[in-house]
Amino acid sequence: MNEIMAKRNRLLADKTIKGLQSRNMSGYYAEDKAEALRIALGLIPEKSSITMGGCMSAEEIGLLDAIRAGDYNFIDRGLYTDKRKAMLDGYDADVFLTSANAMTDDGVMINIDGNANRVSAIAQGPKKVIVIVGMNKICPDTDTAMKRARNVAAPANAQRFGLDTPCSNTGKCFDCKSPDTICCQFLITRFSRHKDRIHVIIVNDDLGL
């Protein structure tokens, strides 16, 4: 990445972090994936129980590999035959890892979910939430963030999961009621009542969908 874009990203991240702080959330800026990994691991004490909501960004910075190799209790949904039990076990975890479908530059997070395990855990349950966000997710306002979540993240995720939805076939949201729709629950996180619960790591890179 050239120096001009790096400077622009740093300034935009600084603005977003101030917005997060005004909303009782903590924000951090990572110059690259390696720094993002260091910050994330610094927020997770050893022996912690950890779960996640299908977070591609956590995989991309190497966090999942580090957790699996470290001294942590990883609640891995992929190892559960009873997926409901995996989700319920996760609600009592010490740490929940996730990303955001979009975020405004003043710290409002937008997330859309199909089964609601991810948005519900962000809203309530796990003691700490660590959100890993690439610069590609930062938007100028809530309307733009919602449009990104519905017209970029949702169609891409529907394609990733092999779902038969209009957006999967066209790349554009149709506000559908398809049985396969993943746009079931919308969460706008504009404030955290519990200080030090939500931690957002903004990474100077494009991550996730």
3D architecture notes:
- With 209 residues, the chain is of the alpha/beta class.
- Helices cover 39% and strands 21% of the residues.
- The protein has helices spanning 3-22, 33-42, 56-60, 63-69, 83-90, 117-123, 142-160, 166-170, and strands spanning 26-30, 49-52, 73-74, 95-98, 102-104, 109-113, 128-134, 138-139, 185-189, 198-203.
- The strands form two sheets. A six-stranded parallel sheet has the order 1-10-7-4-2-3.
- The longest helix has 20 residues, at 3-22.
Element layout with pairings:
Blueprint: H1 3-22, E1 26-30, H2 33-42, E2 49-52, H3 56-60, H4 63-69, E3 73-74, H5 83-90, E4 95-98, E5 102-104, E6 109-113, H6 117-123, E7 128-134, E8 138-139, H7 142-160, H8 166-170, E9 185-189, E10 198-203
Parallel strand pairs: 1-10, 2-3, 2-4, 4-7, 5-8, 7-10
Antiparallel strand pairs: 5-6, 6-9
How many domains would you count in the coordinates? Answer: 1
| Helix count, DSSP H or I runs of 4 or more residues | 8
CATH top level assignment: Alpha Beta
Tally of DSSP β-strands: 10
Distance between the termini: 19 Å
Approximate shape: globular
* CATH architectural designation: 3-Layer(aba) Sandwich
CATH topology name = Rossmann fold
Mean pLDDT: 96
Portion in strands: 15-25%
How many strands, which pairing sense, and closed or not: the largest β-sheet?
A: 6 strands, parallel
Helix-residue proportion: 25-40%
**Structural class of the secondary elements?**
alpha/beta
Estimated radius of gyration: 16 Å
Uncertain regions spanning at least 5 consecutive residues: none
* CATH homology group: NagB/RpiA/CoA transferase-like
Strand-and-helix sequence, N→C?
HEHEHHEHEEEHEEHHEE
Strand order of the largest sheet: 1-10-7-4-2-3
